[in-house]
UniProtKB/TrEMBL annotation:
Native source species: Sinomonas atrocyanea
Name recorded for this polypeptide: Uncharacterized protein
Length: 254
């Protein structure tokens, strides 16, 4: 039996992963449960169900990734899968991570935890009008940290400060060249940042298959650390953005 961990486009927005099991022997078997075992993450990255494998076949089993354990000391981070078969046997199999999915997701989760001590970011529901019919305006809002506690304070006893270093485009949205996206903005609670956008592309096929185009990557500086936090458009804004792209690209209504 072989095992691996990966992430496909469908899982990117949610942060989920796929647990891959391969039948490397000559006999078929049925998997009823698979769980990731990795010290960087809490227990609970689990798939359960019933999946049949034949010799040489690989199945990709989706699982919601458990929360990261941050501030770890030196440890063996080699992941494995605990696989239960329908015959009641359990197997622990070393898991490959060919695209380095787990260290990336661990870093993203831990930076997001650190950033949340400084500021909470969200996109407001309303899509504003741009300077031309082919542009529009998003509003990135900075709210107070969810739980400002003594443990979140820096060396001087004050909460860490968040700084907007840059905003990255997506497959759906790009920067309006006439109104470049700001950077170096101190994100004090109550700050609102206007982001003028245009369609990044007008390929209907690519846009129709989009999974992450309304998930805005925001590069933040928090203390001595810099990382990217992904800010998801709420449902009303997501729908408005797709309507905007269709209109700006000149696609037929309906």
């Amino acid at each position: 039996m072989g095992a691996a961990v990966d992430q496909f486009r469908d899982e990117y927005a949610s942060g989920s992963v796929v647990l891959q099991v391969t039948d490397t022997g000559g006999a078929p078997f049925t998997v009823v449960r698979a769980e990731l075992d990795d010290p960087r993450f809490q227990d609970g990255t689990v798939w359960s169900g019933s999946a049949d494998l034949t010799a040489g076949q690989t199945l990709s089993l989706p699982a919601a990734l458990a929360a990261a354990r941050c501030n770890l000391g030196a440890s063996d981070t080699a992941p494995s899968l605990r696989v239960r078969l329908a015959d009641g046997t359990d197997h622990t199999v070393a898991a490959a991570d060919p695209h380095a999915v787990l260290p990336r997701l661990h870093g993203e989760q831990c930076f997001a935890q650190q950033a949340a001590l400084a500021v909470r970011l969200r996109l407001e529901d309303t899509l504003g009008a741009g300077s031309t019919p082919s542009t529009a305006v998003l509003t990135l809002a900075a709210d107070a940290p969810a739980e400002p506690t003594g443990t979140s304070a820096g060396p001087t006893g004050t909460p860490p400060q968040g700084i907007l270093e840059a905003v990255e485009g997506t497959i759906l949205l790009g920067e309006d060249p006439g109104r470049p996206w700001p950077h170096g903005v101190i994100l004090a609670p109550g700050t609102r940042v206007a982001l003028a956008v245009r369609p990044a592309r007008c390929d209907p096929h690519a846009v129709a298959e989009d999974k992450v185009g309304t998930l805005l990557p925001v590069e933040l500086g928090v203390g001595d650390a810099t990382g990217v936090v992904k800010v998801a458009a709420p449902p009303a804004l997501r729908a408005a953005l797709y309507r905007f792209v269709a209109r700006a690209c000149g696609w037929p209504a309906g």
